[in-house]
Design brief:
- 51% of the residues lie in helices and 9% in strands.
- The protein is globular.
- The protein contains 9 helices and 7 strands; from the N terminus they run βαβαβββββααααααα.
- The protein has one domain.
- The chain is α/β, with parallel strands linked by helices.
- A hairpin with a 4-residue loop joins strand 6 and strand 7.
- The structure holds zinc ion (ZN).
- Zinc ion (ZN) binds next to helix 4 and helix 6.
Length: 283
């Protein structure tokens, strides 16, 4: 992906222990929406994208930021800015509303969130209560080495997927899902989680489509990198790797094929109307 775009001002860089002040924010609409969601459902928990138990991290690794990580942080900031431009345009077109931009928190080891203590072991996650995406950059090492999903567009896909959860939150989709889940069996609840995750994948695809049309961001091999990442972190693939067998009823994020299919659906159409994973009979 081209890395020449503007950088987002909504990055809260908490790496190396120092917490910097965040610039920008979601505005009044976002606050009102967040309040409404909280009133309806109580304090919502994080939407976690853990992709298997990571190795324990020694405290020494958390002391300083490396040049490689700084470069990665810079790239994430460019990707986030592009999602802001893209979703800003979609919200204007579809809803005639400004897009309440999320904050992206970069941390190392652990950090506080409105959804409780965020830890590297949780993988990237989105907290609806504070409308922030949390990413520990060590996750990208895991993605590259343990999950064999290298490439800058694999990294961009992860950001776009988490931003997809933010879009679901501000549109009220995630709170509806939480309500449905509160009275449901575990199997049914997992099914709803899968549909929520696949929709976030589809939204990531919509971003890639729109951003490429507007700014020509895609380079050769990018789509393959994203599809490979979506495939590598499919529930069936992860379960096969860690347990040696697959239990579809316990899926919470969708199979490799489903994740690739819904990312592709968003990518091919660039249309959020085509991302209704809840209406689809067959996902
Ligand atoms: Zn997710």
């Amino acid at each position: 992906m081209k890395k020449t775009g503007r950088r987002s001002s909504n990055i809260d860089d908490r790496r190396g222990g120092a917490s910097s002040l965040v610039v920008g924010g979601g505005g009044l609409g976002a606050l009102l929406l967040a309040a409404a969601v909280t009133m309806l459902t109580g304090n919502p928990g994080p939407i976690s994208d853990q992709v298997a138990a990571p190795p324990t991290q020694s405290p020494a690794q958390q002391q300083q930021t490396s040049p490689t990580e700084d470069e990665l942080a810079n790239f994430i900031s460019v990707v986030l800015a592009d999602t802001e431009d893209t979703w800003g345009q979609i919200f204007q077109e579809e809803f005639g509303q400004p897009y309440p931009e999320p904050t992206l928190v970069l941390f190392s080891g652990s950090t506080q969130s409105a959804c409780g203590l965020g830890q590297a072991a949780m993988g990237p996650f989105y907290c609806p209560a504070d409308q922030k995406v949390y990413i520990d950059l060590s996750f990208y090492n895991d993605l590259k080495t343990r999950h064999q999903a290298p490439g800058d567009f694999a990294q961009a896909y992860v950001v776009a997927h988490e931003v997809g959860h933010h879009v679901q939150n501000v549109l009220g989709i995630s709170s509806q899902v939480r309500q449905l889940q509160s009275g449901a069996s575990e199997v049914e609840s997992n099914r709803l989680s899968v549909r929520l995750e696949l929709q976030a994948d589809c939204f990531a695809g919509v971003w890639a489509n729109r951003a490429d049309q507007a700014r020509d961001i895609l380079e050769s091999g990018d789509i393959e990198e994203a599809l490979n990442a979506a495939s590598q972190i499919g529930d069936d693939h992860l379960q096969q790797q860690s347990r040696g067998f697959v239990v579809p009823e316990s899926f919470t994020h969708g199979s490799s094929a489903q994740r690739m299919r819904w990312f592709n659906q968003g990518l091919a159409t660039g249309d959020i109307e085509q991302c209704d994973t809840f209406a689809a009979n067959q996902i």
